[in-house]
TrEMBL record:
PANTHER family named in the record: LARGE RIBOSOMAL RNA SUBUNIT ACCUMULATION PROTEIN YCED
Protein's name according to its UniProt entry: Large ribosomal RNA subunit accumulation protein YceD
UniProt keyword Lipid metabolism, yes or no: no
Pfam families: YceD
GO terms of biological process kind: ribosome biogenesis
Keyword vocabulary terms for this entry: Ribosome biogenesis
Domain of life: Bacteria
Role according to the record: Plays a role in synthesis, processing and/or stability of 23S rRNA.
GO annotations of cellular component type: cytosol
């Protein structure tokens, strides 16, 4: 894949006025803070992402950036500690605003992107969205994992870590809360 870093130090409002569209395959190493999250030693060489950004003014005169990130990144399986591919398919809708105050006036469907007079690096924006979307913990499917799945349930420390990770994952699940309510009765 042909890769090139995303444009840096741009006037984002100019891109909006122009109605610009940017499609790129940025190298992982050009995205701040992403490499640290990937499988150790991979340094992004087996990870590939494609980015599409659309800059425009919408019907309500809001300055918008709609984005899509797709591809695969290599993360570490928390059970066997071997790398595993994690598919990426993220979409986001940003509303460009000058201040926190303006941000509060945005419709809930838009994520505020607060930009003052300064120029911005698109890699920062993409990196931020990618980090938000990456799963906190990853496991191979049981059949593919180098670590015998049964083993982790008898190793108290590993079992505890897995249970905690599962609990973290389920925190936001409303059904889980219902289950607990039933259980409490
Ligand atoms: Zn594994």
């Amino acid at each position: 894949m042909l890769t090139a870093p995303l444009p840096s130090q741009i006037d984002i409002r100019k891109l909006v006025v122009k109605g610009a569209e940017i499609s790129a395959n940025p190298p992982i190493s050009s995205l701040p803070r992403i490499e640290d999250l990937l499988a150790e030693g991979d340094s992004g060489k087996d990870s590939e992402i494609a980015v599409k950004l659309e800059f425009y003014i919408d019907d309500e005169r809001k300055r918008r950036v709609d984005g899509k990130i797709t591809g695969t990144v290599n993360m570490t399986c928390q059970r066997c500690l071997e790398p595993m591919p994690v598919p990426i398919d993220v979409q986001f809708e940003l509303g460009i605003v000058w201040s926190e105050e303006d941000a509060e006036r945005l419709p809930k469907t838009l994520e505020p992107l607060i930009v003052g007079e300064e120029l911005v690096d698109l890699a920062d924006i993409v990196s931020e969205e990618l980090i938000l979307s990456l799963p906190y913990v990853n496991y191979h499917p049981a059949a593919d994992c180098k670590q015998d799945v049964g083993y982790s349930s008898v190793d108290p420390e590993a079992a505890e870590a897995v249970a905690k990770a599962d609990a973290d994952n389920e925190k936001d699940n409303p059904f889980h809360v219902l289950e607990q309510l039933k259980f409490d009765k």
